[in-house]
Amino acid sequence: MKYLSASATTTGLRQVNQDRSSEFTINGVKIMLLCDGNGGKGGEVIADCAARFLSGEIVYGLSRMEKVTLRKLIQLGRNAIKHTTEDIDNLKFLCQNLNSCGTTLTLVLIYKATVITFWVGDSPCLLYCPSQLSSLACPSHTLAEMLISQGEDREKIEKQTSLASTLTRCIGFKDATPSVNVKVCKPPFSVAIASDGIDCIPKEKIGDIFAKTHLTECLPDKIIISALEHGSSDNITVVATKVKEYPRSKMRRKLILHKKRRRLGYV
Question: Which of 17, 49, 132, 213 is deepest in the core (most CB within 10 A)?
Answer without folding.
Answer: 49
